[in-house]
Amino acid sequence: MEGQIIANAFHHAYWGFPIATYFWLVGASAGSFVISTLGWVFGIKKYKSTAFFASNMAIALLLIVPIILIIDLGKPYRFFHLLMLPSFSHWSAPMMWGSMFILSYPISMMFYSYFVYKKNEKWARILGILAVVLALCTHWYTGVVIQLNPSRIPNHASVAPILFLTGAYVSGIGLLNICLWIRNHFVGPDNRVSAGLIADMARLMLYGVVFDLFLLWNEFLHMTYGFGEEYTMLYDVLLGVFRWPYFYLEIIWGLLFPLIILMIPKINRQLPWVLLASFMCATGVYGMRIWWVMANFYYQGHF
Amino acid sequence: MKITRRQFLQSSAATTAAIGIGGKAQAMELALGNNSYNYIKRGEPRERVFTCSPLYEHENPVQAWVDDDPMAPQNPLTHQVGRRVVEISGVTESNRSLGRVSAAEATAWMEVESGDRLLYPLKRIGKRGAGQWQMISWQQAHEQIAAAIKTSQATETFLMRGKDTSAGIWNRFMRTLGSNSLVELDDAINQRSAWQTAWGDDVSVPDLAHSHYILNFGSNFLVSRPDYAAEAMDGKMLRRARIVTFDPRCSKTAGLSDEWIAVRPGTDGVVALAMAHYLLQQGRADTAAIERFSNLTATGLLQELTPYTLEHAAEISGVPALTLRDIARQFSESGRACIITGSGISRHANAFDTERALMLLPLVTGNLEVKGGNCRPRRIELGEIEPKPASPVTKSPVKNAHRFPWDAGTQYPVKVLFGYNTNPGFNAPAAAAWRNTLADEAKVKFFVAIGTFRNETWELADLILPEAHWLERNEPVQGSGSLLPWVSLRQRVVDPPGEAMELREILRDIVQAGGDPDQSRYWQFQDAREWLGAQLNGIAGLQQDGGWELMARHSGVWPIYGYLHPEVRRIVNEQGEEILPEYGLPVKMTQAPFPHWKTAQDTVISEGELTLLVHAADYHAGDASANDKVIMEITLANHLHINVKTAENLQIADGDLVRVTSKSGYLVTHAHLTQTIHPEVVAMHREGGHWSIGGIASGKAGPKHKDSPANIDADVARNLWWSDMGVHPLDIILPVFDEKGGGSASATPVTVKHAEDGDIYGKVEVDISVLLAVKHSSKSRQRS
Amino acid sequence: MGERMYGFNGVSPSAGKPGRKRYAMVIDLRRCTGCNACTASCKTAYDVPLGASRIWLMEAETGEFPNTKRNVLPRLCNQCDHPTCVRNCPTKATFKHPDGYVLQRYNRCIGCRTCMVACPYNARHFLPEYRRDPRNPRNVADKCDFCIVRVTRGLAPICVNSCTGGAIIFGDMNDPESEVSRVFHANKTFTLRPEMGNAPQVFYIGLNEKIADPEFAFHHRSKQLHRRYNTFKRNSEVGGEMAGNIIDTDMGFIGLIRQGLNNFRTFFRDAPHKIFRGLF
Ligand SMILES: Nc1nc2c(c(=O)[nH]1)N[C@H]1C(S)=C(S)[C@@H](COP(=O)(O)OP(=O)(O)OC[C@H]3O[C@@H](n4cnc5c(=O)[nH]c(N)nc54)[C@H](O)[C@@H]3O)O[C@H]1N2
Ligand SMILES: Nc1nc2c(c(=O)[nH]1)N[C@H]1C(S)=C(S)[C@@H](COP(=O)(O)OP(=O)(O)OC[C@H]3O[C@@H](n4cnc5c(=O)[nH]c(N)nc54)[C@H](O)[C@@H]3O)O[C@H]1N2
Ligand code: SF4
Ligand code: SF4
Ligand code: SF4
Ligand code: SF4
Ligand code: SF4
Ligand SMILES: [Mo]
């Protein structure tokens, strides 16, 4: 035994499941919004039919966000300090950028939705571009919040925001697929989204899954070479305390299983399988949000 | 050396500015604590009252900072708005405190407003110890007590107390009643009687700050004596003093010393004898000093020491002979060396002789009454107020205070028992035996407890009288622990809540309720402050320096030797030179009879047994801090510390639930595996498993205990989070006494095994008949 | 594992703003007795709630019997020269004072706790709703402020004042004559986690590389400490604010769900109260 620490102060985990949920919601919102713009902004015609629903879903998801965030504040009524008041705003803080994005992103989405509804190509396109940039930013900044904190191993890495965005993309499509399928039961036959389209979206999701695994692999490599904190973290997420959210939920359930399903030619266009894969992706990313938030606190909390 | 009255007046201004003392610190440094500010009210200065903390062996002059803020929330206890103590810091003029306070002292002001305080006189209803109480008036209490005293012989009124913080008022009370039946539960009794026998003073003061080599036997002084800790650290920095600690466990002191020597319990005596022998034999002893300071010549001493070789000591103590040799050499070569001895020595059955054997070390190296050595105490005598009651002529029936549970009601009748400032029902070895006797009305007829809080012992009383907290009392204080003698005072900082009264006034009223004018004439005073003044004015020299009232306003201590240097952190004169004590008081030590080494009965273990040591807890000041939220939060529960190897052999893993069994019973606790303890020893600290004192001490406060009185502090009510309160270790300790010193030992042989079915953490089972029976065997041993 | 990069003096004191003071601290661990007087006096002076501290003590036992040592390490806010807490606070509620202190403006703080996430030293805490003195700030972030109320009035911080060993040395680094700069320059000093890039301004003399190493602190917690920590997480909710306290002995699938639900339970249970209290 080299020795042992016998006394220390204890530290709270400052953010918890609500914040993890918020990350997930923002991500899913951004992801589904990206799909929404495929038709109107990027001109892939077949996706036009999903745009209005996807955009509204993104708005709905994002409307829950401020509620969680504001209730989570110690002083909820001071949330206006974040609203770009010149004397209060501290522009070096990613949280400040985030407040701006969270404020402007839903508004631009709403306009976008409106123009999509009105079938106004020009303005839908303009606002679509604006909103998709904001969507990416809104989620990007959540990654930056932790990326810029040196002691939050291993998320203090430039790969963090991209990883976040990829997760958002994957979970957004996954959730959207499920919701579209549910929606199909409630709308008239003309408005239904075809199973083929859902499978196409799943294919888009597959690219995200592959890219996500690629990024995780890079992060994994990064974690095998470091000061030692990285090793510890690696152990904890793979085999230790966080193996459930990270290894089982995110990697196995949320990425590898969907990858396999979507890679098997026989089944990757069959609706039940596609939906299953979508569900796995959407929930798997929640696992990532949990360990992302909690593991940071857990590990450092002992110092 | 002492500074004059004018300087006395000026000094505090000088310290506040603290500019340019000694030329070196040219820059304006920050002052060390002559002010305090209310940060809620944007830095408004606070009122300061000088007083003195009684929490440790050496009392500590402190300044209590008071907010008188009409906007502040009302006092939760008295519902009054107004003055509240909000901070305690050390007195910078005091050579004892050097401006510092301990953790327990810094937080003590919160006790004043603790919801667990005793506020009204309480009378037991129902059986003793049933925990049912009725509020009565002071008058009813006085009358009952006076009647009980009247109906018994003078010597049948007993006082059981711990440390005397009363500046002699208990003495006066007992003498007024004509009794000297004192049960003084001071566990340093072995140490004190050893020194008393050796040189006529009951302590020795190590000059730690000026020493080059500090040899510590069984004291965890960094934890238990904050003043020694400060002095030793000064010595370490200013003179690169080396600190070496003998202790069976790597206590905080041992672990922070330069060297830790893992000695077997109870064997320090033989180590000291062997080291002294080695030094004499090698011609490294100061023979002139031996002759000058003791009744033995160097050759006489050598002769007595012949059997004690280093190898012999190594075998008994488990410390390699080479290590002992090196330490002996370093001790003699360092030039200025001293020893500290602590309860680790005093709480074994051979304590008296061990203590005296240890004194040979400073003696043979000439380190007595020299700079950096062991010195005689310097005291300023407190005056006594005329008329003085005469000392009773009868002999005290109490031959050994620590045997009270075995002797009360059998060797002597106990008609009235006063309890003050002690908690033997929890803290004494074989505590269950104490509770058994105190609960027995046939043995103790009438039991009156006086306290600021309840405790496990007071739960067995017939009457509990609420005493003012030390921040609410007026008491003169005779300083100790420093070679620059000092006096101080406790004075009332805030008024006591409820009907709590000062001890002096309680005792006065009891005497006066007795209605005997002959007794009452010793108790003629209006209030305790008047008494305080009268007693302090009896001190020679204080009057000339402006009198006690000036001292009370100005610094709370007298005399003022100089200023606290903000950098060196020692008391210096205007030239920045440290004030040194005067050394060289005459010393004549006696080694008759010679302190030969004998095994301590309490440490004898057979195959498969381990010695359980119970020691003082870090951060605490005895039970006085047990109900303090801050201290309790930083104190780890007293899990059983056990050596990793030993535990491996017993197949015990870290954190396992274990049963610790002695001859009298067992307790169940968690094992804490550590490298920092001797393989034959296990240890627990004694601040665990309280069931009284208050909600925080006993684990009955906080969010899960909604109606706990301790919860009047919202912080306690909502934010208290810990739940492991430790286990009470003292019931399973077998009573063994040091026949020479009179104190009890507190080590006990135990076996440690995995817990059995049905064992839950915290369980303590004890067979009282075993505890009570032990007495006979030890007595018969004494007779034979 | 322990000895990695704590063996060098990676950080130098900052000059700060010319002509201003630069308050800094040197803690001489050779003098520290591990007495916790600093902790206790600070905690009582500032009504620091249970479960939080502005300064606290780490203690480690190292070595093998009989060659063991104890190591103590008082820790507090490092008043970093590049404070990540300040950089990450969205509202300027925490800021770097030109004299060196990193301070907290309670009336600006929204209680988002980003600064706590940012601090590599865990030097910040959250003030709960219930305080001993209800006039004290609540539901906002707090930390050691180098006792600015005292220091600006010519008094040393209270932890310095009560320090048993005289181990804490505080003063103006910009003044070459001050004790703190003389001690700093005369000794080899260390900072905690220099690789974080925060440029801490609390310097240690005699820092043990094990106790200073977060990784060691993580892997070598005693069992008792570990248990205690889980009790802390279970019982110390701070009114639903700290909804992320996880009990690491209960992290199986079911345990995770249980903790998540419990987390949301306290979060929503306290939500109405939070909204309500904000109105007054
Ligand atoms: N924090 C704190 N301070 C206190 C008190 C408290 O309760 N808490 N109580 C006060 C009182 S009443 C007293 S008497 C003093 C006591 O204070 P100390 O004299 O310091 O006594 P302890 O810390 O109980 O024990 C000292 C050490 O002796 C060791 N020891 C046990 N047996 C032996 C032995 O045979 N040889 C050697 N060499 N060492 C041995 C123990 O392991 C322990 O580490 O502290 C006072 N100060
Ligand atoms: N095994 C083992 N046994 C031990 C020890 C050990 O280390 N190991 N230590 C021993 C030693 S050295 C000692 S001195 C004893 C200590 O044991 P005790 O003599 O019991 O002393 P304390 O623990 O200080 O408890 C004193 C009681 O007085 C109360 N009190 C505090 N201040 C005041 C006051 O101002 N007025 C009144 N009226 N009451 C007050 C406190 O609340 C507490 O209930 O324990 C001894 N027992
Ligand atoms: S120092 Fe290490 S990495 Fe560099 S050449 Fe040598 S072995 Fe290779
Ligand atoms: S130690 Fe933490 S709280 Fe203090 S200044 Fe540095 S980053 Fe901020
Ligand atoms: S909790 Fe307060 S100080 Fe911390 S980042 Fe948020 S607003 Fe700033
Ligand atoms: S400087 Fe002041 S606030 Fe900071 S830890 Fe010390 S006493 Fe507490
Ligand atoms: S007060 Fe001083 S000696 Fe005590 S623990 Fe704190 S820094 Fe160390
Ligand atoms: Mo004692």
**How many strand elements of chain C?**
10
Count of the separate structural domains of chain C: 2
Instruction: Report how far apart the termini of chain C are.
Output: 53 Å
Beta-strand percentage range of chain C: 15-25%
**Which ligands are bound?**
ligand MGD, iron/sulfur cluster, molybdenum atom
| Structural class computed from helices and strand pairing of chain C | alpha+beta
User: What pair of chains forms the biggest interface?
Assistant: B-C, 93 and 76 residues
Mean pLDDT of chain C: 89
User: Roughly what percent helix of chain B?
Assistant: 25-40%
Terminal CA distance of chain B: 56 Å
From the alpha carbons, calculate the radius of gyration of chain C and give it in angstroms.
20 Å
CATH architecture of the largest domain in chain C: 2-Layer Sandwich
Q: Whole-number average pLDDT of chain B?
A: 92
Radius of gyration of chain B: 26 Å
Can you walk through the features of this model?
The complex is a heterotrimer of chains A (303), B (784) and C (280). Chain A has 9 helices and 1 strand. Chain A has helices spanning 17-40, 48-72, 94-117, 121-147, 159-184, 195-223, 229-238, 243-263, 271-300; one strand at residues 3-7. Chain A has one domain (17-300): Formate dehydrogenase/DMSO reductase fold (Up-down Bundle), CATH 1.20.1630.10. Chain A has 303 residues and is an all-alpha fold. The two termini of chain A are 19 Å apart. Chain B contains 28 helices and 32 strands. Chain B has a 7-stranded mixed beta sheet, with helices on one face. In chain B, a hairpin with a 6-residue loop joins strand 29 and strand 30 (744-745). In chain B, helix 4 packs across helix 20 (503-514), helix 6 crosses helix 16 (351-364) and helix 13 crosses helix 14. Chain B is globular, with a radius of gyration of 26 Å. Chain C is of the alpha+beta class. Chain C has 2 domains: 23-214, Alpha-Beta Plaits (2-Layer Sandwich); 218-279, no CATH class. In chain C, the strands form 4 sheets. A 4-stranded mixed beta sheet of chain C has the order 8-1-10-9, covered by helices on one side. The radius of gyration of chain C is 20 Å and the shape is globular. The termini of chain C are far apart. In chain C, 65% of the residues are buried. Mean pLDDT of chain C is 89; it is low at 1-10. Chain A binds chain B through residues 1, 3-4, 6-7, and chain B through 634, 636, 644, 674-675. Strand 1 of chain A pairs antiparallel with strand 2 of chain C, so a sheet runs across the interface. The complex binds ligand MGD (2 copies), iron/sulfur cluster (5 copies) and molybdenum atom. One iron/sulfur cluster binds at residues 32-38, 57, 74, 162-165, 167-168 of chain C.
